[in-house]
Design brief:
The protein has 19 helices and 26 strands. By secondary structure, it is an alpha/beta fold. This is Similar to Glucose dehydrogenase [acceptor] acc. no. P18172.
Amino acid sequence: MKMLSSKITLIALCTAHLAFAALALASEATVIKRADQLRSRYDYIIVGGGTSGLVVANRLTEDSSTTVLVLEAGEFDDGSDEFIVPGYMGKTLGSSFDWQVPSVPGEVLTSSDIKIPLGKVVGGSSALNFMIFDRGAPADYNAWESLGNIGWNWSNLLSYFKKSETFTPPLTSQVTDFDMTYDSSSHGASGPIHASFPPLIYPQTKNFVQGMNSLGIPTSHDQATSAIGVYYHASSIDPLTITRSFAKTAYHDPASKRSNYHLLPSSHVTKILLTRSSTPRAYSVSYRHLNRDIVVLARKEVILAAGAVHTPQILQLTGIGPSTLLRNLKIPLTVDLPGVGENFQDHPSVQIPYTFKNVFTPDSWSFNDILIATSGNALSFLPTSWYSPNTSSIIAAGRGQEGTWLSPLTAPEVTAGFMKQRELLLSLWDSEDAATMEVATFSMTQFQGPSLVISLQHPLSRGRIMVTSKDPYASPAVDFRAFTNPLDMELMIDGFLFMRKFLQTSSMMELQPEEALEIRGLETREEIRQWLRSNARPSFSHVCCTASMGQREEGGVVDSELKVWGTKGLRIVDASVMPLVPSAHLQATVYAVAERAADLIKGIL
């Protein structure tokens, strides 16, 4: 592989710092610092200046006659290396820029009471994530429309995936050395977010791809339109500066030059104010800024973009949600909407502990070279029959299930919606057009061997997110309920066994893998099940679906135009509206959903 010199790398990093300094100055010049500098009324108020909120704010303010206010609970990032340099990604997790939302102990996993990393910063989780930029398979998004959400299908979303993206192909040397393929026509050429490949890719990544191929797992020509099999994935990296490309730099900074766009950081929204009528209208937002409680008015709409944890929390505090919950907490009921906080999904995952004696970093790489390499560049998304010898019996068991394994507090409407989902999900489990397991590898350095992770993509289990008091500053009860449906665990066991088989391929054996002592003796399915119960995590930081699209009588919270059922002037545009979690890391999908949401609000669709 052709290596970049340390000198070139240092120049790139210096260029990045200068570019970010200039962007920071441009942003600071127009960002509102005090509430008394705001207008008393805006056309649109967006709650949350994260990934989706900044997309919608940017697109709405393209019309100079439209005024928009974004209220963000966090501050701006500090522009440090930990935020922008690819090799440092993950360093900001657990910092003051991270909500670190606690979850409650689960029924199955002993390690399920984790803290969920969520961006509390302008740019949201796009400022903290590992920059993986991939899409789900077409079947994932067609499933959304199959549930009754008209217009939410692969064909329609593809144009918004492209709209959000500027794609830069891999280097010629990478195409040659790694046999990388791509289809430029599947990507965007002028979107705000850069999708590119780091200049340096760890050579062990080739072993990962070849090991999959040797088991009959094909390489996708380009995951952008066929995210099944193994593939090299792009990252959200600006190829010029070799730094993180995220919602702040891509959407906020250009919009910040517009006089009709305001963003107020350190503004914690406490509730939405609605008129007292048969169909209440959202007309105002209450928030706290610098220890003051303030209200600002919206002429047209209030748009929730607070994310899959905080959006249902704000709705419930507003009086929109399950009536029993709200009455028990003495929160005045405005709209009885039992689906708020229900249908909670993520990708439960587990790291398989192996050491590798022959993993190395090329001698020609310097420390600065490593800083412009990401932690991993290949993923594998597998349909059930590609890794599970028990596919037929597991699906038959699913179709014969009499129970739902939902929370006993689940409303009948939500149960009805889940039953419809389960039928559809089992058809995806039985298809080669949709993946149910991700196999990923990270941290491919000489200091730490590859971290091998398997992650369940289309679980049947459902969690819930519910407020526990009227206090808007208290975290809601986040209950993943991972693996409560026993069939999810059966797939995870098969994924574990597949990983063991994969590590025995000749390509992976070149890395000299060795099982950790804790799993070396695991042979029976029951032994593996017990190990997974102690070591799996309920999350891959892909929280979603808690205010999902769907019919109101089936537990839906928003309609196909993302309007909250039973209200006027209130929409949701973040990951909570997804009815089913796609088989992908969520970043690119959230951008596409938000881009389409902006067109819906503007009346283009």
